[in-house]
Amino acid sequence: MTATADRPVGVDIQENEQNRAVIEAIEADNDDATVRHMPGLVRVTSPGRLVIHRASVEERLGREWETHEFQLAIISYFGHIKEWDDDQILIAWDH
């Protein structure tokens, strides 16, 4: 049985120019993240948790970015949304 801390979580993001900054920020902020490009989407996975920091996205995007914009980028995710506020989104498992 896989421990919750190691159980992969992830997100599938539409592959387009607008979402490139989001993908780059996720990859930069999650050392253990694996990024896999597939037709039309990018799957980002990480053991245990995946965090998306607003400031990291804004830095790469060159403009203000609100975390609710993430809803427009994602196709699906696996794990639980543990936290979603103005500064970050955290995906992890409860058990």
From TrEMBL:
Family per record: Belongs to the TmoD/XamoD family.
Annotated protein name in UniProt: Monooxygenase
Domain of life (superkingdom): Bacteria
